[in-house]
Design a protein that fits this description.
This protein is of the alpha+beta class. The chain is 38% helix and 18% strand. Keywords: Acyltransferase, Transferase.
Length: 213
């Protein structure tokens, strides 16, 4: 499809519902995870929305004027992963976990995928130390399928790189991807990302001097 009118701007708190939706529609190794969930909001409550609600997060979104200025893709980041994790513990997870009982099996009708994310809400995981040692900054990026393979991912990542370098004085960042998503791995490698030694499979780091944006 033609995306000539699409533009990138800073992410806002008001974008939260659409960030959540995009996260779900790309949440199964790059394809829709709708079929895996009864509560479709869960994946976005973990991997998308906190970045526009917490002071240690920021991001950029793609907007399509042809769809009433709908957000159709995003790159979300933090300049300090450990501070972001603490802020989420203090101010995000207590609020969003309230509607989901613990243990996860206590939620009637919850799927296995639901239970996995409910467990994360109540017991948030920490980023691998090997990744944080590489850089305090990390990023998530998701774009709706019809907007992929048109250079938007490269542009979004470039905006994050510029922000981290110019506003925060950083020279590296990392991300995690589903190891099943071979296409995403090839995309990141083409931009200069490399697998991080000592980190879990699918953790890739970018030294900004290697960025091919």
């Amino acid at each position: 499809m033609a995306t000539s009118g699409v533009f990138i701007r800073e992410a806002r708190t008001a974008d939260s519902p659409l960030l959540n939706r995009i996260c779900l529609l790309t949440g199964d190794a790059g394809t829709s995870a709708e079929h895996l969930h009864t509560s479709g909001e869960l994946i976005g409550l973990v991997y998308a929305e906190p970045y526009v609600h917490l002071p240690t997060g920021f991001g950029f979104v793609m907007v399509d004027p042809a769809k009433d200025d709908a957000v159709v893709g995003y790159a979300l980041s933090t300049y300090n992963t450990r501070a972001f994790e603490q802020a989420a513990l203090d101010a995000w997870y207590p609020r969003v976990r309230a509607k989901y009982a613990y243990p996860p099996d206590a939620n009637e009708g919850a799927t296995d995928a639901d239970k996995r994310y409910i467990n994360i809400l109540h017991n948030p995981s920490r980023a691998p130390q090997a990744a944080v040692d590489f850089s305090p900054a990390h990023m998530h990026i998701d774009i709706l399928p019809e907007y992929q393979r048109q250079g938007w991912g490269r542009r979004l990542i470039a905006r994050v790189v510029v922000h981290l370098r110019e506003e925060r004085g950083l020279e590296k960042m990392w991300l995690g991807l589903d190891p099943r998503n071979d296409g995403a791995k090839r995309f990141y490698e083409a931009l200069g990302f490399k697998e991080l030694p000592g980190a879990p499979d699918g953790t890739m780091g970018l030294d900004f001097k290697d960025f091919r944006g």
